[in-house]
């Protein structure tokens, strides 16, 4: 208060102000990065837990800044969401990932589903459906090979969310609820949701082998999903112990460092080539 000017404005930098300065810098860099296409995409395998077969891949965006180095998505995705930059960035990821997937299919590699993350902001864009159709037409990717991962945050407006999910389904594109169990979803309305898959949040998998509550939640999700004929995948599987419990409880799909970390497109291509039966 001592440093307040006559009109009560402090010229002292508070933590808040410094944080927002860092944020403004990040915002500007992000804007440039989109124009300069400083991004690339890694792909993480999804596996069938009973056969070990590859069943899918998740596209994960990566930002390699020329001076700042690698900036993790957890840092820049929230900024991109707040500023709306997620719209052009998300579109770029969708187009690029579909292009890449189609290319692998054309090269004769095994066809596997591609999952792309869709932020709530993208989900509620009025032209979302047109954008998806445009990408599918441009890349000539069959809609059945595309899955969109959305988080429970879209269910803040449940009726609107269901309408959009129905429209996506009409296109033949699959949908998945990411980070499932952490947000708005209540078991009472899951039955109305036109989604293909629930992706159990990594936090439940992390301690599943020594936390009875986490295991109970995972079991409950598996039971209800089975009744509703919805697919379940566990994310963040890191250890054999976790895998053993998931298998025992009847979870058939998984993703995590135990199987593979996210791979560059070259590495994922090589991996696919190794699976090719010729
Ligand atoms: P997410 O969608 O939940 O993606 C899974 C994250 O967990 C990824 O982090 C992945 O690298 C990491 N992961 C995978 N297996 C394991 C494991 O066994 N252990 C641990 N500890 N982590 C594992 P990443 O790539 O850093 O992405 C973080 C988040 O950023 C994503 O979480 C997603 O919310 C967001 N994100 C990434 N790419 C995109 C994108 O293209 N669009 C949007 N809207 N969001 C994205
Ligand atoms: Ca995801
Ligand atoms: Ca997730």
TrEMBL record:
<feature type="domain" description="EAL">
    <location>
        <begin position="23"/>
        <end position="276"/>
    </location>
</feature>
<protein>
    <submittedName>
        <fullName>EAL domain-containing protein</fullName>
    </submittedName>
</protein>
């Amino acid at each position: 208060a001592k440093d307040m000017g006559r009109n009560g404005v402090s010229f002292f930098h508070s933590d808040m102000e410094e944080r927002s300065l860092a944020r403004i810098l990040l915002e500007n860099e992000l804007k440039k990065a989109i124009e300069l296409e400083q991004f690339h995409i890694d792909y993480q395998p999804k596996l069938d837990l009973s056969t070990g077969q590859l069943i899918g891949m998740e596209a994960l965006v990566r930002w390699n800044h020329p001076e700042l180095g690698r900036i993790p998505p957890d840092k820049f995705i929230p900024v991109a969401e707040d500023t709306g930059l997620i719209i052009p960035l998300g579109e770029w990821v969708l187009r690029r990932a579909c292009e890449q997937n189609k290319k692998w299919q054309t090269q004769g590699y095994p066809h596997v589903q591609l999952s792309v993350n869709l932020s709530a902001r993208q989900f509620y864009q009025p032209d979302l459906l047109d954008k998806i159709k445009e990408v599918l037409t441009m890349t000539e990717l069959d809609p059945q090979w595309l899955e969109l991962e959305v988080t429970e945050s879209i269910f803040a407006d449940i009726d609107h969310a269901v309408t959009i999910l129905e429209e996506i389904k009409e296109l033949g594109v699959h949908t998945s609820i990411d980070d499932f169990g952490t947000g708005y979803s209540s078991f009472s309305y899951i039955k109305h949701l036109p989604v293909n898959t629930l992706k159990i949040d990594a936090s439940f998998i992390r301690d599943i082998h020594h936390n009875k509550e986490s295991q109970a939640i995972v079991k409950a999700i598996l039971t209800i999903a089975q009744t509703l004929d919805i697919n379940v995948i566990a994310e963040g599987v890191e250890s054999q112990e976790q895998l053993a419990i998931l298998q025992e409880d009847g979870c058939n799909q998984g993703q995590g460092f135990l199987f593979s970390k996210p791979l560059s497109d070259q590495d994922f291509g090589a991996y696919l080539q190794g699976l090719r039966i010729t």
